[in-house]
Amino acid sequence: MDRQAPAARLESRVMTTATPRSRWSPGPIDPSAAVYVAGHRGLAGSALVRALRRRGITDILGRTSRELDLRDRHSVFEFFAHNTPDVVILAAARVGGIAANNTWPVDFLSENLRIQVNVLDAAAAHGVERVLFLGSSCIYPKFAPQPIREDALLTGALEPTNDAYAVAKIAGITQVQATRRQYGLPWISAMPTNLYGPNDNFAGETSHLLPAMIRRYESARREAAPSVTNWGSGTPRRELLHVDDMAEACLYLLENHDDPRQVNIGTGVDHSIAEIAEIVAVAVGYDGTVDWDTTKPDGTPRKLLDVSTIHNLGWRPTISLERGVAEVVEWYRAAHHPEMDAFSEIGAGDVRI
Ligand SMILES: NC(=O)C1=CN([C@@H]2O[C@H](COP(=O)(O)OP(=O)(O)OC[C@H]3O[C@@H](n4cnc5c(N)ncnc54)[C@H](OP(=O)(O)O)[C@@H]3O)[C@@H](O)[C@H]2O)C=CC1
Ligand SMILES: C[C@H]1O[C@H](OP(=O)(O)OP(=O)(O)OC[C@H]2O[C@@H](n3cnc4c(=O)[nH]c(N)nc43)[C@H](O)[C@@H]2O)[C@@H](O)[C@@H](O)C1=O
């Protein structure tokens, strides 16, 4: 006799029943759909929740990592068995800026592989029709031709500061494609460029470029410091997308797109790090001088995405970098009081609102 609980039985294989046939067709997400946003408190996940609410979707499932550790396969399968989501958006991941990726590569590889495999296996086991997997532009080769087209994937060596994270993300894209092939489920993957917005990680050392700079420049302004020191040479280029634009793009893809190849999401415009620093200085109102710490890594020299696929599908971003950065500075000032400046020691999760 099979003494295992149903969730445990499902855990041992990806799919229990015969291949499901997809019933999906393009159109708005059903307002009564149960949508699970894995990572709903994060930068991307919280923007996805806002975008879903703007569409009138109310049955949004979210669990913090304390409530549901997605590295724990059994818990993930139990969650799916009890909640049976109709749509899954996988925005939970171990995420960090260049220093975090460079310092803890095996954590970024191992944790992300486990999170992805568990969530995607559980979604397949329950026959979830619509799944969107979020990767990142770091999946592409370090010296890919610019702007980077989707077909540049796996054509060259990765940027060493984030190769472990990138390999985990490439595995996620492959799992989506393999699930489509094996089970006929219309799952998709999206690859956003560097993101910024409210609910970002402003911890400093582990942050991405933009939140790190907003924190640094705001602190320098408050303290009337004569100069700030940014990382690297200032010459690499980055394409920055407001996370609310990213969320709209993801929902647009979920409503309109069904194809195995990952889709780039970006603005199609990039700036040097020095130019981005100047935009932050203006938004914050800091007029001191800038030094560059070249002992810190530059990372990939350029990773401008070719966004013609999503443009041709009919989606374009709406938030300019200057406006977006100014809004995030306001958000940061409202969310973080000066006495909370020690929050890097507390951990980014604890300062989210
Ligand atoms: N930030 C960026 O610039 C970019 C991000 N992306 C992609 O977007 C996705 C989300 O990134 P972003 O929003 O920036 O990251 P954040 O760090 O802001 O959020 C990550 C979320 O994942 C959750 N999480 C992490 N580990 C676990 C776990 N073990 N179990 C359950 N939940 C977990 C966290 O939950 P909790 O808060 O409860 O701890 C958090 O809400 C990632 O896939 C990333 O690759 C893509 C391109 C650029
Ligand atoms: C989204 C993407 O994010 C990461 O890749 P990245 O784009 O290299 O990351 P970043 O945002 O941290 O840095 C961008 C650039 O900015 C320069 N820089 C200046 N001053 C600061 C600074 O204060 N902090 C940081 N972090 N960078 C700084 C820094 O020297 C570098 O040249 C990966 O995690 C990757 O896995 C990934 O997916």
Summed up:
The chain has 353 residues and is an alpha/beta fold. It contains twelve helices and twelve strands. A six-stranded parallel sheet has the order 2-1-3-4-5-10, with helices on both faces.
SSE topology sketch:
Layout lengths: L5 H6 L23 E4 L4 H12 L5 E2 L11 H11 L3 E4 L7 H6 L1 H21 L4 E5 L28 H21 L4 E5 L1 E3 L12 H15 L3 E5 L5 E2 L1 E3 H14 L6 E3 L5 E2 H12 L4 E5 L14 H6 L7 H15 L7 H4 L7
Parallel strand pairs: 1-2, 1-3, 3-4, 4-5, 5-10, 6-9, 7-12
Antiparallel strand pairs: 8-11
Overall body shape = globular
CATH superfamily: NAD(P)-binding Rossmann-like Domain
How many discrete domains?
1
Arithmetic mean pLDDT: 92
Per DSSP, the total helix count is 12
If you compute it from the alpha carbons, what radius of gyration comes out, rounded to the nearest whole angstrom? 20 Å
Total strand count, please? 12
Could you give the order of the helices and strands?
HEHEHEHHEHEEHEEEHEEHEHHH
CATH class group: Alpha Beta
Strand order of the largest sheet: 2-1-3-4-5-10
Extract low-pLDDT stretches. Answer: 1-6, 339-353
The CATH architecture assignment turns out to be 3-Layer(aba) Sandwich
Bound molecules: NADPH dihydro-nicotinamide-adenine-dinucleotide phosphate, ligand F7E
